[in-house]
Structure formats: C-alpha cells, structure tokens
Amino acid sequence: MTSTRRAPARGGGTRTADRAPAPAAPESGGGQHSFVGTGTLVRLALRRDRLMVPIWLGVLFLLTIMSSLSVKDLFGSAASRDQLAGSAGATPATVAMYGPSWDVGTLGGLSTWKMNTMGTVLLGLVSIFVVTRHTRGDEEPGRLELIRAGVAGRYSALTAGVLVALLTNVVSIPLVALGLMAGSVGAGPSFGYALALALVGFVFTGLAALTAQLTESSRAANGIAAAVLAVAFLLRALGDTTSQISWLDWLSPLGWLVRFRAFAPQPHWWLLVPPVVALLALLVAGYLLAGRRDLGAGLLPARLGRPAASRLLSGPFGLAWRLHRGTLLGWSIGFAVLGAALGSVSNGLDDFAASKGVRDMLQALGGQQALVDSYLSFTMALAALVVAVYLVQSLLRMRGEETAYRAEPVLATPVGRLRWAASHVTVAVLGAAWLLVLMGLFAGLGRGGDDVGHQIGRLLGAALAQLPAALVLAGITIALIGLLPRWSVAAWGLLGLFVAIGQFGDLLKLDQRVRDVSPFTHTPTVLGGTVSATPLIVLSLVAIALAAIGLLGLRRRDIGAA
Amino acid sequence: MDNAISATGLVKQFGRTRALDGLDLHVATGEVHGFLGPNGAGKSTTIRVLLGLLRADEGTATLLSGDPWRDATTLHRRLAYVPGDVNLWPTLSGGEVIDLLGRLRGGLDPVRRKDLLDRFDLDPRKKARTYSKGNRQKVALVAALASDCELLILDEPTSGLDPLMEQVFADCIQAERKSGRTVLLSSHILSEVEALCDRVSIIRAGRTVETGTLAELRHLTRTSVTAELAGPGDGVAAIPGVYDLVAEGNRLTCEVDTVKLDELLRHLTSVGVRSLTSQPPTLEELFLRHYEQDEPAVTA
User: Fold this and answer.
1) Any CB–CB contact under 8 A between A296 and chain B?
2) CA within 20 to 30 Å of A19's CA: A214, B16, B79, B164, which one?
3) What would the pLDDT profile of A164-187 be if each residue is shown by its tens digit?
4) Number of domains chain A is built from
5) Which residues in B lie closer than 8 A to residue A219 (C-beta atoms)?
6) What's the fold here for domain B3-213?
7) Residues of B in Cβ contact (< 8 Å) with A485
8) Can you tell me the ipTM of this complex?
9) Structural domain of residue A92, as residue ranges?
C-alpha cells in the first residue's frame, strides 16, 4: 500500500492535507493534541510489559555479574590478563566476535569485552521489540484503531512505545554498572560503560520508531530492525579485523561502543554524542512518516504469497515444517556462528597454553589437550541448555496453535490428534538434532588444523551427546501440554530451575541429590574422558516415557483454549 | 440410519458453566438443518462435540453412523467444517490454506476451487494476516465447499460476509441441497435460516427448545406491522393474534402471529393502505417473548 497524506482525523477539521504543500514539520496532526493520551498509553504499555522487560533486564544483569565475577576469579592478576590479551585476545575470531582487545588488560575492560556483543544484542532487541509491540504490533490487528478512535492523538502510541523503550535502556544503566562493580571494577568507568551501552539501545529505539512506519506487518518491522542490528555487528566485526576498512566501525553503533573505551585512561567521551544524534534523526524521520500516513498503511508494499500451496504443504508435517522453518533458520545461523566461534577460540587457548609457565601448570593438570577439551566440554554443555530453549519454544508452539484455534480446522479433517502432535514433535526434535550437528560441524571446522576430519568427528559426537538431556525437557513440555495444558508454560520454569542448578550448583554447594534432579547433570563429559552410554540411554528413555504420557493425555482431553 | 446427526441429552460442563444441558439434535440425511440460538447458547460447543474435539460429559451422539469421539478421523473424511471464528496461519496465503485444508481432507476439485474463488471474489495470494474477518471466512468456505464430502458443518458462516456475499453463500447452499449433501448451518439470524433450511432446531442455554420444519414453527414467529391507512383502523384490536397495538390517528403499529397475518392485511386493505412495512421479529425478540417468563420446555 502507498502512504497517502490525508486530512488529520482530529483538530484539523476540514483542511485537506492532500492539496496543501508538504509541511516541513509534522504539525499536520494538530500540534500538541497529537500527543493526547500518551500518559495513559505509557501506563498501558508498562502494564503489558511488566514481565517481558524485567526478564530481559534481569538476563542482562545476570550476564554482567557472571562475566565480572568470573573475570575476577579467573584473571584476577594483571599478568594473567596481559597473557590473555596477547593470545586469545588477538585472534581475528575473538576480535570479530567481541571487539578489539585494547583494554583487556584491565578488570573492567576484560569483563565488558565479552559483553559488547551480548549486551548490545540484548538491549538492541528489547528496544526494537518494545517499540514495535506498542506501535505496529497494536496497529496491525486493529487494536490501535480502537484506541485512536478515543481521545488519543496521532503520535500518542508511537511516543508511548519510544518512552517505554528509552526507560528500559535507562534502567539498564545502574544494573549493568552494579553488575560490573560486583567484580571490583571502579564505579566511574562502570557507569560510563553502562551509559555507552544504553545509548546503543537508544539508537535501536529510534530505528524501530522508523521501521514501525514502513511495513504493514509488525513481524516485518521487527525483522528489518533486527537485520540492521546484524549489519551493525558485521560492520564492526569487519572494521575491527581488517585495518584497510577500519572506517566501517564508525558507521556502526557497536563500533562507537567499542571505541568509547570506558576503561582506557582517557575514554573518548565525545563518542557518546553520535548515538544521541542518531536517535534524534531517526525519531524525526519516524514522526514525519507517522504524521503523514494512514492508520494501518505502510510505505513498503505488503508481499503477496503463492496463490496455491506447493506439493510440500499437503499434510500436517508439511504444515508443521512451514510453521517452524523460519525460527529454525534463525537458530541454525546462531548455532553455526556459535560453533565456529567456539572452535576458533579454542585455538586461541592453544596459543595461550603454549607459553612456558602455563604449559608447566597444564602438564600438571593433564596436558594442553585437557585444557582445550574441558573448555569445549563446558561450552557444549551450555549449548545443551540453549537447545533445550529451542525445544521448549517450538513445542509450546503446538499449544499456541491450539489456543489460537488453529489446531481445530486441522483436527476437523481426517488428521488425528497423534499425527497432529507428532508433526510438531518431529520437526522440533529433528530441528534440535540438526542444530547440534551444525554446532559440532562448525566447531570442528573452526578448530581446523591438519586433522579437521578427526576434529569434526570428535566434536560432532560431543555435540550430539547433549541431545538426550535436552530431550527430557521436550518430554516434560509434551507431558504438560497433554496433561496440564493450562500450565504448559511451566516448562520454562523447570528449564530455568535446571539451568540454575547447573550454573550455581558449585557456588551454593548444593547436595548431589538436588543436582541429580536436573537432566543436564547426567550428561557425561564426552571429550577427554571415558564415555559411558548408559546415562544417555536412560535420559532418552525418560524423555520418551514423558512424551508418551503427554500424548496419551492429549488423546483423552478436550481440545481448545480452556 | 436416516439421520446424519443424532444427539440425545448432551451435557457439557466447563468449570461451573453448564454449556450444554441436555441438548438434542437430529439432522436427517440430505437436509439443510438450521441450528439457531442466541450467542452463547451452546451452538459451537455442540459442533465441537460432534467433531470429537470435546468429549460430552453425558448423553450420546452419533455422526454419520459413527461415534464422533472414537471414530473422529474416519468420520472426518466424510465431512467439511467451517469454524465460527476462522483463525488462519498468518504467514500462509489464502490459496495455500485452501489447498492445505483440502488436501488434509483428501483433495479438492480444482475447477470448483477456481469457480468459488471467483464467486466469492477472494484474492488467494494475500497472506492470511492481512485478511479481514469476512475474507478469512471466505477462505474456510471455499476450502469446505470445494471438497467432496457428505456433510457440511458450518458455524455461523455468514457473520462476517457482506450482503452480496451472503447471497453467493445462499446460492451455494441451495446447490449443495440439490446435490444431496447434508448441511448443518448454525446461525443466530432467523431470516437466513428461513431462506435456506428444511428443518430448524432452536436452542437456548444449552437445551433444545423447539425443533421442526419451518411450517411447524410458524406459531413461534410474529411479524411487526406498521401501516399508514386511509382512515382509522377500527376493529384491528378485535382480530385474534394481534398484540401490542398502538394506533395514533390513521397510523398504527402492532405485532401479529404470522399465521394471522393474512387476516390482518385483509382488514387493513378494506380500510385502505397508504404505506405498509412489516418485518419478522429477531430471534432474540422471539426468545424474550416465548421463553423469558416460562421455563424452557424441552421438546423432542
């Protein structure tokens, strides 16, 4: 659809903006009346986001604390940090992933090094999601029409979304700063870094205010903004690793962040200016467009689909594949990148271990291979948790289909409940296995060396060994959907509990019986140890039993939202 | 079995709400059966029980000589269903949904598919996300009507359609009747059911209150009449079956039992009619009048 200028709905009376020359400022909506109702909408947005935003911020806070505490623990001495800066910190892979390692010699610099990417992704995405959710996300299904027909101005929804997103970023400042200070990092630089990080979130808030005007669908608006985030990351990664094109850094908000250097003796304070300028420019563009387009319209035309279904889309499995494939594609890219990064970082560890003092220490501990293997095993175990997130997410989609009454037309055809459920379960489980294969494959390629084939084989095995524990979570989710459908989301809570047991088990000195509750406790260390298949078989059997119970329950219960 | 659908004494409880409270429904093979009731009366719940999506707490149901719960998948080969609130996969196009639902039922007739798309004026390339309620309904209708089956179960299929499309829908149902298909058509619009259905079941609060042919249900319907006469309409009050008479000068309004309409009109024309409007009562008015005071009596 094209955007047509039209007479303002309120305040402007009979004036036809179509004939008037394009106004320089978006005053056509009737001045300050355009913002009427913003306060109410902000309260509505805060009410609707009361869970989502705190969870995002909580994850950011936990990441910061874990990063700063582990750095203090592992690299407390300046010598060990310098060592790292010279080895792992200098490989192109880590620089591309995390940014230049200029200040890795300081506690704060090392703690925030790994957070540059994670932090900007978290704050960038939450900013994009919040803005889109309260603008295009309400406009697309027609909720905004209801609101705008009341006493609410043209810009009220956009302003409310932007304000809540900005507020989210502002709240992140003390959280990130306190998280860093927990690792004995100085308060001044900590707040400086937290501010620079929040300003990256500001830029993506402005960006989302613009993309929400472009498309009719909120999914596409989110997608365009997230793609810009990915490009910003790539520009920074390319600029940092290739000196001839290091100017690319200056085009990216992530480049501004890594060049701000909060922990250098002289931080580049002037680099806090470009994000603010970018925010203002993007907001002006967004408001200009918002003032000139019709409710519901976008600038970019809505894409049309196929007039007829392809051969693939002719059964429940084809439908499930169609529904899951987009998500799986995103996850696949993530796992491939993760695997490649993992493999190449482990090469950095080889260099690290090659220095004299470390080598002697490692010999005592079981050799250089042992260090690399334990690092790889540790990260593979983390991948198991991430795969479990994928499994829970994609299996809950099955329940989502039911509560949205989209399962009903399928189940009113000769497709039985078991076949319908099996379609989703199969796609989810095969998807999880596929993700782990990708991870092992790319970790082996990233590790490289003369024996790539051998490394790939070893790491593929190590990655796939994580599957059974993750499948137990799949079994739990299916059992909940079948027996206690209203409590299906409790699967997230259980996953969170298991993650906590794994991450804090040592710290809290938990009893072994408590640790045994988590399926992830039972995955054997495949690399550098003697592997027993028994726990893997038992985990798989538990997963199958839970799934069978759930499917039996699904056959016996009512289908519907209740 | 002569009955395509046969349900007796269905009870379904959701928590404290009793959605079905001893409901009876009998649909003969080959007939178009109207399933009438105000919103929330239990129409959709009954249909979901008949589709085996919900299990009735009490009562028995037979669908195409099978058990709707136990034989769900085999029975579903022989029927097509249009939900009352059509929810589609937002990223699929309308054409893809039509083909998918058709193939799940065992294939659809491409000629009929194209013909129906033309008649309903539906663009199959648009993503389901962008369809209005009426267009989503058209997608489900095309998928159901283009498939070859014995029984059509339609849950308020016209609630989002404009009058033009309602007419297209009515034509399609007439054609279905001629080709011998059984249709269960749920609705809360009496005139729609009157125009299309052979027999009607009326339900309220989870119970069947009336069932029969439209002629048998004539006693239920009253028509409201407003007339402008050449002279004072004396004597109208004396006609049996006339209620709520208001006469102001030469103008009168009243309600009349539909079976007595003829007698009233004869009287009015004898005085001389300048203008006349008559309209059937809405279903809700009907219920208010007949069942509000008396407890609903269950008829077989």
Assistant:
1) no
2) A214
3) 999 999 999 999 999 999 988 899
4) 2
5) 90
6) Rossmann fold (3.40.50)
7) none
8) 0.79
9) 40-292
